[in-house]
Amino acid sequence: MFIDPVEFFMISSTSLKKLICHYFPKELLPTKWECTDKNPLKNIQNLIDASNGKLMVYGSAREIYDNLNLFRRFPGSHHKFQFDTTEVYTKEPIFYQSMKRIPYIYKQDYFVILQSIISTSPLRKFETEFSLATITAYLKMKELSLPALNEMVPYCAVSAALLQTGIQDIQHKFNDYLENPLLQLEFKKHTFEELFVQWKQINPLFEMESIHDSLQDLLKKFIARNPIRDNEDVFKRVFAWSQLVVLQLDIFVRDCETLFKPKPSTKPIVRIFDDKPNKLIMAYELLDAMKQAQMDVSKLEEEVLEMPELSTFTYQQVASRISPQDMRTIEFVITPITVAKYAATPIPTINKGEYCILASDFLFNLLGNMITAKKMFQRIEPSQLNVIREFFNFVDNHFDFTYGIQFIDLELVEMINSELDTFHRMLTISSKGPSDIRDRQQEGFTKTDLSNELKHLKLDLIFPEICELSEFYFVHLTKTLKIEKLSTSDVYGIVEHLQIDCLARRFPKLAEFIHSQLVCSRIFGYQCQKCFQPKEPKVAGVEAVEIESKKELTIDDSAETMKRKITLEFANKVKETLAQLSDLKNEKPKKSKKQKPSQQLVPEKVKSNPDPCQKCFRTSEYHNKTKEDFRLEKIETKRLRKALKESQKESEEKSQNIAEKDQEMLLLKEHVESIQREFLKYKSDMNNVNNETIRLQTTQLLEHQQALAQKSLEVIEQKDEILHLKAQNQSQQTVIAQQEKSIKSLKEKSQQLEEKRSITNNTQRLLEETEIIHKILVDTLKAQEIFESESPLNKITVMTSRICETSQDPETKSIAKREFRYFARQIEGYRRSLKKRINSMKNETIRSDDIPELREFPTFSDEFVKAYKDTLKKDAPLICAPLLKLPETIKSDELDDKECLVCLEDMVKNQDTVKCSTCKRQYHTTCVQKWFKIKRICPTCNAGLLDENEFPALS
């Protein structure tokens, strides 16, 4: 069956709940909500419904699910969130690209790819789910042995394709593998303990006890659904397939050790974190990679050791500090920084098991927690801002702005969040619950609506300037998005950004931190004092008022107080200007007890008339106002006339459509009536047909009854005959039973005689077989003792090293290295052959014919012997000489090997073969003749080998 990733690799409800608790602030999560459905979208929708609108700001269930997947796409996320060991990998691996266009991947994500390679299964769905859980447990066990989380390796698609081919071969030959005795299960007691002991014997690769505990729980659940006694074949198939796949994966892990061992020192790999437009490199990671590659880091090390642990360089700074040669040697892998809607994706550090995020992402998460989750500024008094200042001073102590953009460790993040809870408990919180943003999805929010919403949230009490700032934010956002009104989701974002802006105005260190991390633009509409120079205010007709003593606005001074100061100064300046104008005209206005403000700003032409007609002035104003109203009414009338014409046109179109539909209804009504008439006619015809059919069936039924009565009489007669035959048969069976008793007694006597003979023969054969096996075991143990005492691998290492050190000839060194690789491979094969032979003889029921043959001990090739003698001026010593004593002649029907290395098929006795005199390997004559057309050397040891038919021996 095909393994669909959407169906088999879906996150479980238990793991989804753990992930949600890490993603959302605890204040937003309801105390009780159902998370039991297999579909994660339904579980998230249940969470949204149970939150009473608190999670509306996070979007729909699909948006939250996508953000959760983005949040957990980092290596080792299942361990970080404490997912079950037997749960399959449910996240997608991320492929990165180096600056040399080479694909790279985290080592932990390589195991996710190994799981995804298993694309088909010979089992049923529930069996496949259990087997995949077992296979994933093995992969996670291997993942735990990795040295660090930040190491990356190049992705090899060829090796992955070969592994996929091997797993597909298992499926094609699965029925043959089931017959293997090593994969058989014995069911005696049908208990869990009996089954788990056999499972551990079949799966020796699972070494960690913690994995055993998880697998025991998994197996118990599977047995609860599928009892052992009724499903023996199910357990055989499940255990066999999972073991075969695990063995295939283990071979891949061992063959590709370079992918999973600590990173090599020859080619350092350094990550470039792409946080557009910034390209950042962790200083300590760069230093560590260059040290492992043994590069010169004397100058760089002095600078880095003075920096905080998670400080960064930009790519340009690194290029200015490192030589061009080292820059070409280092493999820079571009790693984009991903951020979910309200949480940053963790990044692995060079310290084992530790993660970090950008300090700017941490700050916005912290502010979002204060503003959105705790709604702190909707529930406190302005006098309590001192507590908030103390908290920001505490956060400031953990950062040093002089070193630019920084990362922050997740353990420090958790500590600061815990400290935030402590400060939050110190505040005097209003007993009345905070208000929520009202939903105006259909109407939308205007500038006035936004200001009213801020007052509804009571944010103007602690931030008096927030309503005035909202006007600028509204204009800025609507122009950017090219809309007239804001949606509810837009208002959620703008309210949060407005509060951050107000906090930055009150806490200079917060504004300094935002500017140092180059994230001023992340606050939509925020104007950083260091990024933008404020413009001087200008008033038409009056020169700009210069205030002599300008003081910076502190936290304790409110915006309203400053407004009043500026207004008073401006009014005094206007009074002085008017007084100077009156002096120039030499006019002495009459003193009055109280002068109206409107009289101070009367133009000069009006003042020339000492007694203007107030009625005429008001009439003129009323006339102008009426004229303007009349003009507006005309415009409105035109608009209404146009709307009336459009509505009349629409009404006519609707009337025409209604008439057309009425005509269609009449046609349909006539059509329905004609169909009804045809149906009635068809019904009457069917009734006539049914009556005729019933008459015919009745006639046939009577005829069948008569025939049945006739057959009943025949049956009665046959029963009488049967009873008579039964009586005869019973008498014959009695005679047969007596004869069978006599035959049985004779057989028992004969069997006893045969058993006595077979016991005698078996005893003699067993003694002979035991002597043969004992002789083979003694010879094999002697060979093992010689092999272990003489340590042939060390000897060949010394010999080849001596040749490489002595000789200056590259060809001689190449021969020595090739001989070492060949000899090491052959020695390992000989050691396995010894071990396999001894283990097979531990089985008490084995026969001498079933004992595997011991392969020949390898000897040196002729070219190596010659090279050794030419280089060291003496003959090459024999290694494990007692093991080289072999019979000089081989019988024609006896072969040294069971497999031809050319065609990879087993050899058959009395078959034509060709034998290499150097390595003693034999090949099919037809196969080796095809090989000679390409090369005239031995396929195993590369020694010279010729076809005897083409080059016969000289007499």
TrEMBL record:
Keywords: Coiled coil, Metal-binding, Zinc, Zinc-finger
Sections of the chain in a coiled coil: 637-692, 729-763
Region of interest (Disordered), residue spans: 581-610
Keyword Cytoplasm annotated: no
UniProt entry tagged with the keyword Zinc-finger: yes
Residues annotated as domain RING-type: 900-942
GO biological process: innate immune response
GO molecular function: zinc ion binding
InterPro entries: DUF7809 (IPR056711), Znf_RING (IPR001841), Znf_RING/FYVE/PHD (IPR013083)
Protein name: RING-type domain-containing protein
Species assigned in the record: Caenorhabditis elegans
